[in-house]
């Protein structure tokens, strides 16, 4: 199965998970800013990772806006955040980011990230 790992990372935690996953499954690795739908369509399995911002997954619009084209693929999404894993919160994030139809085609996982204050965008620093 030809696999691609796509990520959007603000502080490096999501990128690190994406690199680990890509290495473990011998997948190609791309930042979401460097990929096109045409390129992604060459793969059987798409893994996408983004950090949580409130309950939104950064960069997930690449998957959701192209969902009709991608739903024949194996879709795996992960999010990274600073909070400990909690089934209730994980389910809330999943429901808020994907429609009920999309949820049937997506496997979702939450990974513990962290804070890298020096890499956070100014808006996020102010929120902290």
Topology:
Blueprint: E1 3-8, H1 13-25, E2 28-31, H2 37-40, E3 45-53, E4 56-57, H3 61-65, H4 67-70, E5 74-81, H5 87-97, H6 100-103, E6 106-112, H7 122-127
Parallel strand pairs: 1-2, 1-3, 3-5, 5-6
Antiparallel strand pairs: 3-4
Mean pLDDT: 89
In this structure, how is the largest beta sheet organized? 6 strands, mixed
Please count the helical segments.
7
Total domains: 1
- Determine the strand fraction and express it as a percent band: 25-35%
Broad structural category = alpha/beta
Distance between the termini: 41 Å
Question: CATH superfamily, called what?
Answer: Flavodoxin domain
Number of distinct beta strands: 6
Report the C-alpha radius of gyration, rounded. Answer: 14 Å
The SSE order reads EHEHEEHHEHHEH
Dominant shape: globular
Description:
The protein has 128 residues and is an alpha/beta fold. It has one domain: 3-Layer(aba) Sandwich (Rossmann fold). The chain is built from 7 helices and 6 strands, in the order E-H-E-H-E-E-H-H-E-H-H-E-H. It has helices at 13-25, 37-40, 61-65, 67-70, 87-97, 100-103, 122-127, and strands at 3-8, 28-31, 45-53, 56-57, 74-81, 106-112. Strands 1, 2, 3, 4, 5 and 6 form a 6-stranded mixed sheet that branches. Strand 3 and strand 4 (56-57) form a beta hairpin. The longest helix is centred in the N-terminal third of the chain and has 13 residues, at 13-25. The protein is globular and about 35 Å long. The model has no long low-confidence stretch (mean pLDDT 89).
């Amino acid at each position: 199965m030809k696999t691609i790992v796509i990520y959007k990372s603000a502080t490096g935690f999501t990128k690190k998970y994406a690199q680990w996953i890509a290495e473990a499954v011998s997948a190609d690795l791309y930042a979401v800013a460097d990929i096109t739908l045409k390129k992604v369509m060459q793969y059987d399995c798409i893994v996408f990772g983004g950090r949580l911002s409130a309950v939104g997954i950064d960069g997930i619009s690449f998957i959701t806006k192209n969902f009709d084209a991608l739903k024949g693929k194996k879709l795996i999404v992960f999010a990274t955040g600073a909070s400990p894993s909690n089934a209730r919160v994980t389910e809330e994030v999943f429901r808020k980011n994907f429609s009920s139809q999309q949820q049937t085609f997506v496997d979702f996982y939450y990974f513990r990230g962290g804070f890298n204050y020096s890499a956070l965008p100014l808006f996020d620093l102010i929120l902290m």
